């Protein structure tokens, strides 16, 4: 039976079982916790060089099935890939044009999937970004409310101020800021599905006088400094390396002198911004976030600074995002039957791998998540920020 397998695969000691297309089973180690059901005979040869992209693609395409807890599937799949491939050398970065048409199509592909599908595993406010865990014991609803409050406190929002929300999603932050901090919010998104539900929720809460949400590209933002504060959550990952300077210039032009700008987004592990190793980044690019590009903290920091903003505070929330994704993945796994009624089978396979894989990736430091607070200084360099962070935690 071992004749089926490449020689390198036979030597591994992993808690993994292979079930072949003819019903035969091969254990690669004692007490298997995960079973790979190989439905396509040509996959056996590919298992000698099992990149995460190749394994994930085979599952998405139905050439491979998985049995076992999805978290353990990801852990053992990474161990298999690492044992046979190791860390691959970086290749050349592909800088994409990221014009308005391409960006709108990429956003629609990901975010217009199904509001009901997202509602299965996100919190009640549909906040689709890293939560904030003050103790680590919070549920997803508590942690997302804490995140929204943390952002608003960092921005030192005051009643009557005008807040620009770039990439407003389903409007959770916009409504929270209006309701809890008394500000007026102008939010923009490129997702029609998000915008429709977000506007409905604004109306349902009676916040129409405070919150205005529009379908708009960041490149079309007004440049007259009309906003007191700017917040952008989960946006710069979609902008592209080549457009980061323009993106930051648009935020600079939108905020008044002395105003604060908060960027909250995923950052790359490597300073050159290359994807995570062994094909994980390629899988996400192909199936999950087309046109997505992660900048390193140094890269986005340089673009913010060169636009004329002064960075005043940086916080890493990498472990918070690992926990967020663990909760999202668990919630989806608990609702697989319902999810299968809302999205195609291939889509559900993508999202199972994506959520569990990203939880694993953030926990293991493959990428990071940073909140970067900046100020647009007055002409004489002054700003009104407190001397310390103490006010954030009262």
From TrEMBL:
PANTHER family per record: CYCLOPROPANE-FATTY-ACYL-PHOSPHOLIPID SYNTHASE
Descriptive protein name: C17 cyclopropane fatty acid synthase CfaB
Organism of derivation: Pseudomonas benzenivorans
UniProt key word S-adenosyl-L-methionine: yes
Gene that this sequence comes from: cfaB
Cited InterPro entries: CFA/CMAS, CfaB-like, CMAS, DUF7884, SAM-dependent_MTases_sf
DUF7884 domain ranges (all copies): 12-76
Keywords on record: Lipid metabolism, Methyltransferase, S-adenosyl-L-methionine, Transferase
Family: Belongs to the CFA/CMAS family.
Keyword Metal-binding among record annotations: no
């Amino acid at each position: 039976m071992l004749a089926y397998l490449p020689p390198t695969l036979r030597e591994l000691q992993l808690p993994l079982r292979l079930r072949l297309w003819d019903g035969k089973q091969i254990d690669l180690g004692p007490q298997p916790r995960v079973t790979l059901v190989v439905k396509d005979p040509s996959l056996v040869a590919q298992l000698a060089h099992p990149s995460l992209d190749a394994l994930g693609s085979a599952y998405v395409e139905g050439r491979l099935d998985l049995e076992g807890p999805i978290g353990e599937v990801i852990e053992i799949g990474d161990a298999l890939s690492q044992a046979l491939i190791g860390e691959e050398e970086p290749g050349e970065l592909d800088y994409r044009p990221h014009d308005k048409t391409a960006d709108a199509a990429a956003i629609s592909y990901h975010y217009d999937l199904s509001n009901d599908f997202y509602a299965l595993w996100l919190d009640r406010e549909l906040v689709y970004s890293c939560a904030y865990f003050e103790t680590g014991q919070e549920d997803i609803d508590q942690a997302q409310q804490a995140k929204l409050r943390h952002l608003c406190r960092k921005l030192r929002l005051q009643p009557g101020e005008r807040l620009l929300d770039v990439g407003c999603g389903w409007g959770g932050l916009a409504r929270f800021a209006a309701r809890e901090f008394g500000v007026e919010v102008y939010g923009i998104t490129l997702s029609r599905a998000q915008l429709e539900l977000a506007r409905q929720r604004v109306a349902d809460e009676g916040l129409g006088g405070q919150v205005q949400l529009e379908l708009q590209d960041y490149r079309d933002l007004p440049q007259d400094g009309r906003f007191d504060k700017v917040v952008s959550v989960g946006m710069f990952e979609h902008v592209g390396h080549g457009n980061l300077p323009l993106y930051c210039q648009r935020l600079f032009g939108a905020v008044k002198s002395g105003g604060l700008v908060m960027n909250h987004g995923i950052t790359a592990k490597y300073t050159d911004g290359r994807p995570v190793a062994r094909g994980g980044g390629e899988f996400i690019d192909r199936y999950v976030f087309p046109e997505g590009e992660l900048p390193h903290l140094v890269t986005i920091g340089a673009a913010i600074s060169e636009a004329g903003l002064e960075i005043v505070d940086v916080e890493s929330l990498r472990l918070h995002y690992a926990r967020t994704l663990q909760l999202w993945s668990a919630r989806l796994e608990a609702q697989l039957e319902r999810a299968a009624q809302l999205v195609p089978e291939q889509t559900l396979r993508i999202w199972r791998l994506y959520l569990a894989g990203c939880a694993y990736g953030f926990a293991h430091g493959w990428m990071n998540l940073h909140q970067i607070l900046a100020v647009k200084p007055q002409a004489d360099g002054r700003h009104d920020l407190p001397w310390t962070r103490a006010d954030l935690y009262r």
